[in-house]
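Render this sequence as a predicted structure.
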Amino acid sequence: MNMKITKIDRKWLEEHGACSEGKEWFLAQNILSPVEGVRNLLAKDKVDWANWLVVRLMSHTQQVRYAVYAAKQVLKLYEVKYPTDKRPRQAIAAALGFVDNPTEHNRIAAHGAANAAYAAANAAAYATYAAANAAYDAVNAAANVAYAADAANAAMKRKIVLYGLKLLKEGGR
């Protein structure tokens, strides 16, 4: 899929799996272009919906670059907690290697690295979730920390979606 579409209507939204609430909201906006739609969603703090739309407007190459950008935004956080685990960094390098030189060898390398990084991230996420729950139970102030983390998370999501818009404007690269 690429941003060559000029109109997002009910049929397009249904074909791309939009939720019913999203379809109704989007159609009520009378949005003329996909980029305008993403901007409108961001203006209304519907960052998750904006991300949904951006990804569906992108080519495969743009999607990989978008995923790499998002991964890079949180890589340092992961590496602080797991300084010896290089799998996420290797997955990012392999994904870029495939995008820049889409050979079968690079595709297989990127797939293997992505699977290893996914396993590492899953283990880290579960460990972090368990630690966060324990901290929340132990210390009432953890609710404030969670709120602050949520706000930082929203800002990061917005930054990532804005990068996605930039990719869309640049075209197929």
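Summary. The CA atoms of residues 4 and 57 lie 8 Å apart. Helices lie at 10-15, 20-28, 34-43, 47-57, 60-81, 87-100, 104-138, 142-170.
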